[in-house]
Specification:
25% of the residues lie in helices and 22% in strands. The chain is an alpha/beta fold and 207 residues long. Bound molecules: zinc ion.
Length: 207
């Protein structure tokens, strides 16, 4: 089965000292690099998503007159209000310095439309627009995705769930993920939901 590695949002703003730092976010970079080497050895594609927002993105609390960490509605969709993060072309939006990014075959950006957030690497939250990821994977005849990254309870979760719904077999590398945990169990619950929908939860040593 053709297998691709998908690295979700391994960007500075989600790591230590970043604008939306995920606790222990940096810990996943070494796991990502090991996974990259495994996939390179097998000649299988390595792809990555980038959260890539215009500065006026309305998911930013400051642009919507709301409070960071609270929830509301953005254009009819549930929305958590975030600090300004991953603004396109800024240092915060760049891939983590220690990630061996030279081996990434293809990048997909998301969250580029200021009116809608995009947790999934496949579609915006309203499922109106595709990032091109599904089309690219189809073209490469990929049937299985191995996914890790940030954050477990948002972008990893929605990417995994969309991947399963689109018919991919999905493996989640749990030691390669960390969560925001606005509520303490959010990441654990997200992993259980992914598993219930058909994802396999694996450790790095099992991939
Ligand atoms: Zn974002």
């Amino acid at each position: 089965m053709n297998n691709a590695l998908l690295l979700v949002d391994l960007q500075n703003d989600f790591c230590f000292n970043g604008a939306l730092a995920v606790p222990e976010g940096d810990e996943v970079i070494k796991v990502a690099n090991q996974a990259i080497h495994n996939f390179r050895r097998r000649n299988q594609p390595i792809i990555a998503s980038l959260d890539w927002h215009p500065a006026n993105h309305k998911s930013f609390a400051v642009n919507s007159g709301t409070q960071v960490g609270e929830s509301g509605i953005l254009n009819g969709l549930p929305q958590v209000w975030w600090p300004v993060h991953c603004v396109e072309k800024t240092q915060g939006a760049m891939l983590h310095q220690q990630l061996e990014k030279e081996y990434i075959n293809k990048l997909f950006v998301k969250g580029c439309d200021c009116d809608v957030d995009s947790y999934s690497a496949f579609f915006d939250n309203g499922k109106q627009n595709s990032t091109g990821l599904n089309e690219w994977l189809s073209g490469q005849k990929i049937e299985r995705l191995t996914i890790l990254g940030l954050a477990t309870d948002y972008c990893v979760k929605y990417t995994v769930l969309d991947g399963l719904r689109l018919g991919y077999a999905v493996d989640v590398v749990i030691d390669g993920c960390r969560g925001v945990n606005l509520r303490p169990n959010d990441s654990n619950n997200a992993l259980l939901e992914m598993q219930a929908e058909g994802a396999r939860l694996l450790k790095l040593e099992e991939i």
